[in-house]
Amino acid sequence: MVTGIGALFALVEAIYIVLVLAGANTANAFYRFIDSIAQPLALFFPGLFPIANEQLNVLVNYGVAALFWLVVTGFVARLLR
Question: How far is CA 25 from CA 11, 35, 39, 58, in A?
Fold first, then answer.
């Protein structure tokens, strides 16, 4: 169950990355919904690696956040076994 939650968090981050890279309409309700979830889940990672290219910045920083959730929840799940 813990790894499932981590996978869900990582999936939200991945969807956000895809929406930004694809140039989704930021006024769209689905985009705003995903953005409102992805921002808090990214924790302190946005801005960790300041990159001038906005798309690469989102890819790296939110990608690291997605990997973080997968690794941490995988580790917690092993501890709980």
Answer: 20, 12, 17, 16
Which range (37-41, 47-51, 57-61) has the least confidence? Answer: 47-51
**DSSP letters along 20-77, please?**
HHTT--TTSHHHHHHHHHHHHHTTT-TTSS--SSHHHHHHHHHHHHHHHHHHHHHHHH
The two structure tokens encoding residue 58 = 């989102």
User: What backbone phi and psi angles, to 5 degrees, belong to 60?
Assistant: -70, -55
pLDDT for res 39: 93
∠49-4-61 over CA atoms, to 5°? 5
